[in-house]
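Lab notes, practical 5.
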Amino acid sequence: MRIVLVDSSLFTPPYDLHLGEGLAALGHEVELVGRKLRKNESASSETVRFLPFFYRLSDPLRDSWAFGRSLKLAELPLDAIRFVRHIRRLRPDVVHFQWLSIPLIDRPIIARIKAMGIKVVMTVHDTNPLNEAARSVAQLFGWSDVLQQFDTLIVHTETSKHRLQEMGVTAPVSIIPHGLLQFGKPIQKSHDKNVILFFGSIKHYKGLDILLQAFDRMKIPAKLRVVGAPRDPAPYLEILAGMKKRDCVELDFRFFDNQEIPALMADASLVVFPYRLIDGSGALLTALAYGKPFIATNVGMFRELAGESSPSLVPVGDVDALASRLDEALTDLSRFQQTSDRIRASIPSWKEIAALTLQAYGTTVGSQPIATPDRLAESTSSKRQD
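Output from the prediction step:
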């Protein structure tokens, strides 16, 4: 089978590449299409071919916000035409979108591909479109209507499937777990103790403001390390300025290379996800890949993987509860480590995830369904409780 994965803005290249490699390992030809790669980015491997079709002119100007955004909107229709021509020449069996760009432009792209007799699939990573990444009405308008065009939708959690149903989306939906994300081998743990890590892109819904307040109320001495790039650092700097424990906080506001992740994980005693909302979390799957205990809010993937009664979960937005749970975890990490270890053991391999993805494709391309691996079937149907 010939498969084209599409992530025009490369929102999730690690997921794209891991999935592509899993599909290739099962004997399929995989191509990933996205924007031009930036410094230190990787989106290809020995088994996955990468083609930069989108935003070749505008992406280098992304820091020039107004001009870069205008050029991006102007460039996308031309990129879409080139992409459709490429699909017409390549004639893949499946075109698998990971994200949408502009629904009004995506709609005719999908229609053209379907008119060629090619089936079109989408993984809905977030049922709240792009969370806070959407910067214009154009990125949101008609989003749920476009989802109806797909032959099959893929989500990572029951919560996501339920939300799509509430939105009135009637396209077939398959639930396929998100796999572990590893960026190099784990390295030896540092000798620092009680290091709390918050990492990844920093947006309001991820609750860094809540974490800063909770950290300031902790009783156990600890260090908080924050690594990631916010759109506006001012609100966090303002909170930090009023904290009693500001000298114990490291705000490392920057984009970081994924190759730094093994070192970040080695330094961390505990990883925290104080999110206000979430469907799936690549950051959680990264922490789990490195065997790290975590504390997260009782939402989305966190709740489904950990289980309602898990000590690793706290109520959304509850500063005191988060502070208390951080103290509890750093007093005795064993229960939190057990949760992390149990979840990690239940996560299927990328080859198993690829098999489930092919099973979803099979409902649209007329091939025989691929059997779900027994271990995966057991792990995803069992109740996850601590």
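Observations recorded by the TA: Residues 285 and 293 are 11 Å apart (CA to CA). The first strand starts at residue 2 and ends at 7.
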